[in-house]
Write a structure and sequence with these properties.
The complex is a heterodimer. Chain A is mainly beta. Chain A contains no helices and eleven strands. The N and C termini of chain B lie far apart (36 Å).
Chain lengths: 109, 115
């Protein structure tokens, strides 16, 4: 079967750095996505990795290791508005997205 | 630009009744998707369409049907609602469903309660 694992919940302090991990087992791999979802809202795109390595976008970076079936999302200089759920999704061999259950990130002042 | 709109925003439906959730996009995207999101579970694909005139089944298609008569609209129909269909439904679209990097854009969601 296909499986995406991420921690259910994480807590971090404003101004700090947090790393959210995602491991996956899917039938095929055509890229990995990270989305942000604020409570009661729709998911919005954060990042995309298809090759191994680090992709940086401002305060957010995403890393991929295809051989390990592993990715992480790194958030720097945390702000209160970063409190949200972060969803990891893998595009499988049929080009469909398989989604993790999401990691709820709580930011404390 | 509106992006993707969904209607209604929320609905309470009696079990056994039928209902159509509407989804419209103005980005001229080829691919559209319907997901449901339940607490503790990831988004699950119900049905998808890679281009107007074609549709496909996702992970949880039972009890749902879709049509794609044109590029912009992708309605989702529940023929006879059951309480297990209580969920938040998201419509999404992407430029292509079959090639390359294609970010999915999401509508605001429809919160459906079946009693």
């Amino acid at each position: 079967g296909q499986n995406i694992d991420q921690p259910t919940e994480m807590t971090a302090t404003e101004g700090a750095i947090v790393q959210i991990n995602c491991t996956y087992q899917t039938s095929g791999f055509n890229g990995l996505f990270w989305y942000q979802q604020h409570a009661g809202e729709a998911p919005t795109f954060l990042s995309y990795n298809v090759l191994d390595g680090l992709e940086e976008k401002g305060r957010f970076s995403s890393f991929l290791s295809r051989s390990k079936g592993y990715s992480y999302l790194l958030l720097k200089e945390l702000q209160m508005k970063d409190s949200a759920s972060y969803l990891c999704a893998v595009r499988d061999s049929n080009y469909q997205l398989i989604w993790g259950a999401g990691t709820k990130l709580i930011i404390k002042p | 630009t509106a992006g993707i709109t969904q209607a209604p925003t929320s609905q309470i439906l009696a079990a056994g009744r039928s209902m159509t959730l509407r989804c419209t996009q103005d980005m001229r995207h080829n691919a559209m998707y319907w997901y449901r999101q339940d607490l503790g579970l990831g988004l699950r694909l119900i049905h998808y369409s890679n281009t107007a005139g074609t549709t496909g089944k996702g992970e949880v298609p039972d009890g749902y049907s879709v049509s794609r008569a044109n590029t912009d609209d992708f309605p989702l129909t529940l023929a006879s609602a059951v309480p297990s269909q209580t969920s938040v439904y998201f419509c999404a679209s992407s430029a292509s469903g079959t090639s390359g990097y294609n970010e999915q854009f999401f509508g605001p969601g429809t919160r459906l309660t079946v009693l």
